[in-house]
Automatic annotation (TrEMBL):
This is Methyltransferase type 11 domain-containing protein. Transmembrane segments: none annotated. One of its GO terms (molecular function) is sterol 24-C-methyltransferase activity. The keyword DNA repair does not apply. It comes from Trieres chinensis (Marine centric diatom).
Length: 149
């Protein structure tokens, strides 16, 4: 036991064995220490049989750099299995939604669209269009409460 606390933000999507990962984190934390986890997870509203849900998740993953997509309950279970007591499991965003923040940032990219269209190679226009579609999918997933980071 070496650390007073730990946190992770958007990195554990790359872990293939989350149970082993949480066991190791628990092992190196001092007794009574806290660990904070913030990563891409699916929520209870996600329906793998709903094509719209699947499409939103598929488009959001490259937008946020996600590799693994699991239900939040699987993360909680792996944490509890490692010995952690889950004190809180909720979306930490203001109001429980991230979509408004993403939408409020769009205005900052208007000049970039102009530059890409008139000053840069065509591939930049295509890239920005793809990024816009992925951002819209992320906002839709957030509004439907099917996934969050």
């Amino acid at each position: 036991s070496h650390f007073d606390g730990a946190y992770e933000i958007q990195a554990f999507t790359y872990s293939q064995d989350k149970a082993a990962l949480f066991r190791e984190i628990y092992r190196v934390l001092k007794p009574g220490s806290k660990f904070s986890y913030l990563d891409w997870v699916l929520l209870d509203n996600y329906d793998p049989g709903n094509e719209e849900h699947v499409d939103h998740v598929k488009k959001t993953m490259p937008f946020i750099g996600a590799v693994d997509t699991v239900l939040y309950k699987e993360i909680e279970s792996a944490m509890k299995g490692a010995g952690f007591a889950v004190l809180s499991s909720e979306d930490a965003s203001i109001g429980g939604h991230q979509g408004p923040l993403i939408n409020s940032e769009r205005r900052h990219y208007a000049w970039l669209r102009f530059m890409a269209r008139y000053l840069l190679p065509a591939r930049f226009t295509r890239m920005l269009a793809r990024l816009r579609v992925y951002a819209e999918a992320f906002v839709a997933a957030d509004e439907l409460r099917i996934a969050t980071t």
